[in-house]
Amino acid sequence: MVAVLAMCALATVGITVGIIVMLVGQSWNFFNSEHVSFKEFFTGTEWTALQSKNIDDAKFGILPLLSGTFRVTAIAMLIALPSGLITAVYLSEFASKKVRAVLKPTLEVIAGIPTVVLGYFAVLVIGPSLQWLTDGGFDAFNATSAGIAVGILCLPMVCSLSEDALHAVPRALREGAYGLGCTPFETSVKVVIPAALSGIVSAFLLAFSRAVGETMVVALAAGTQATYTMDPRTQSQTMTGFIVEMIKSENEYGTVQYFSLYGVAIALFVITFGMTLIGQLVRRRYRESYS
Amino acid sequence: MSIDSISQDAPQDPGVQRPIPEAIRQGASATAESTLNSRHRKRVSKAFYGLCVAISLLSVLVLVVLLISIAVQGHSRLTPTLLTGSHSTSEPASSGMYPAIIGSLAICFVCALSALPLGIGTAIFLEEFQPTNIWLRRLHGFINLNISNLAGVPSIVYGLLGLSLFVFMFNAFGQIKVNESSGTEIMGVERYYQVLTLAGGGDSVLIPQSDLSQPTITITEPMPAVDRQGNTFQLEVWDPKSETPKPSDPAIRHRTVRLGQGGGAYAKTSWYYFRLPFGRSFLAAGLTLSLVILPIVIIASQESLRSVSPSLREASYGLGATKWQTVRNVSLPAAIPGIMTGAILAMGRAIGEAAPILVVLGATVAKNSGPQNLMDTVVTMPVLIFHWAGDPQFTYQQLAAAAIIVLLLILLLMNSVAIYLRQKMRIE
Amino acid sequence: MTLHNNHSATIPEHTRPIKLPSDMPQSASVTSDPTSNPSNAPQLADETCIEIANFNAWYGSFQAIDDLTLKIPRNQVTAFIGPSGCGKSTLLRWINRMNDIVPTAHSKGTLRIHDLDVLSPSTDVVHLRRQVGMVFQKPNPFPKSIYENVAFGPRLHLKLRRGELDELVEWSLRKAAVWDEVKDRLHAPALGLSGGQQQRLCIARAIAVGPEILLMDEPCSALDPASTLAIEDLLYELREQYTIVMVTHNMQQASRCSNRTAFFFEGRLVESGPTDDVFTKPQQKRTDDYVRGRFG
Fold it and tell me: Any transmembrane segments, and where (chain B) (predicted)?
């Protein structure tokens, strides 16, 4: 019986191995093509895998997709990190039981909303609001509205992980700070947050990786043009957005354009896996330091 | 060394003689100034508290705006047609999501069936069988780290894995191609040629297919056949060029075909039709989703098992129970409510997940029923919503909002069950 | 560790005979009263510092302290003793309004420090806690460097130049008798110190903001005997400049290092007086039973 359970556990390692084998194997078809070079892939500023049916015209430079992902993620983090952390501080340091009883389920509900719903919300409400506020300064599909929706999506995650970290700070430290004459603000900002810093950093990293890998919101709201710019008002196809478009386009299996999605996927996997790994390692060390 | 120096130092320890620093004396005596300072600090603190409340309220506000805007957009399409109809390109107004609801539930079922045993088994192994050997401990730690990393892998990557692993199975069993090959079939399918009989009006008999590489047949001689009721009989052939008149008895006409009559391939599948690779089927989709939620199930189960008081386990060992007996009779029953709560939340995640299904099944939504067999393709609610939301037609936009309301209601129902379980667990 | 043991073992012989330094400065107290020169303190033994009258305190509906009246004299070590749950820690935590952070705690009655009404809602808690320092049961240094721990309080309350801050940190650490052990690693993490060193660091942190009163909530209960001895010696020295109120479970400790003792039982004050009297000729039978170790 134990052997069966051990097999279950090892199967989880098998999944990781499977992902890596699959990504490397399939993207080999892409990188091995004569139309693709590593140099172009990493430094090219044009990505036209979907637009050019003719392989000779296709350009495979991942930078536009990366910049799209970066824009959306940066906006999402600008929203999710401060508000998630502040909400976490409020929940762990100040909130009364009654407030908690409202706020916690609210955050859980937001965390449980399917991402496709948030994508729809971005298209239905956030995008038009931005256009209305700026008198048409934004494209109909743009990085900002997708970023805001992704930020909403990451907020509960940042909040609950940070709250865990703040909770792990011993009560004695707070008392020590109050005992020295700290105000509640000083206690939170000068003692509790620094003491929980590595836990909070890990929460940030995990949220970052989540935002980079988010798919449905950007597929709906960020647009379908890969643009290499820092302007958050334009269309911004992201790495995940491109994968979805390629799948949707029913491009012929076997073409270099089709396999380019695996090239993008492996870049996506390396970024998110790296972030998550660092985040988890930081989180572990933090947990050990207070238990 | 240091001991000596200390004992020499101690008598004339300057701590006692040393004067209180000017800084303290000044700060202490300057009462007015320090009160001012503390008043300012308190104001900052109050402002910070206000900021906390405002930001926290913001999340409530966002949720409210989201729900209201979707309700406003979708309420007019919350009709019975929505629940009974299926996607229609020609008549958007009569579109519905019945196949999607069934499809989502079917996928969720497959997903639960595969992810729960695997996930709970892994959790039991990791929590209850902790090795003492240093290398095995490292392996344990590695598996744990790996699981938390898997939880951070984007779901679309799981979709790509599912595409290779379940849909194509790395092409190890041959490729599935329409009208050419259907991979390696295991069971649940009978292949026939369908041949028109003399009875007319589309009446046909089925002739068992012996060579799968031949997509068509031409009847030249009597051979065994199967009728619609599944009875086997000997098929008779009537040659129009011969002198024999065309049989007039309808019963005989049913069993007779014209010489040289052609027939096409026809597959009769049972619900348990099974083949390798799975192709774009709901089985493949369900298994892919189970990969997505597996880390969630494992982590929730681990936490639940960890919260079982060690004294319960010790009591069990104290009675002479073996490790496995303790797990089965003590730890697992105590942890089951928590595990079930986690499992339901994970199912909620699975029902709402669109990206991996999009990858595995493609973006098509044209299907008017739930899955007919294990290898049948399906539409799911999130994919349908994605399709509708991406369509510029206003009717589809409204339909998307209405479908979101249905999806959220189903999720709400599942979460209520989870909350109910959690409460029940607390009371016990 | 060896270093530490020797330190605590050697100090008593040399320092217990109190040599009052001639250059002792004015007290750090906020209410800078000309009569409060610490060199006079032992003579002014009966000047009341904290006055508690008809004091009641609750946690939710549970009454932790019931109609308590007590005067705590200036520049002495007052020990609160009594069995667990008798309200002694609760009282201590009300003296600097530490219980403000416990949502269910509330109180009624009089609690004054000199002429300051501690319980009044208009009292500046930040200011109060600067005057009334607190040392906790478990050493709770912040996860920062040793220097940063001591400098933390002054940085909140005072605007100091770098040199002044350094001087203040050194003074506080010397005062808490931990300077010699940490002077070479002021910027090392405080959590790397031993338990006893950490607790003395916490005392240094508390006195760095210049309090008049030090509250100590079982300051030695988490420490080994050698560290305990070091802290007790420190208390003996510190009372020249500070009014110290200490909660302890350890009767020997109370008798060793306090001048006055108050015995609490079930939320009430049973008896209080000079430590020698309480331990050798208690007025109440319950006190007698307790100090002899018959219960509690």
Answer: 48-72, 100-126, 147-170, 281-300, 396-421
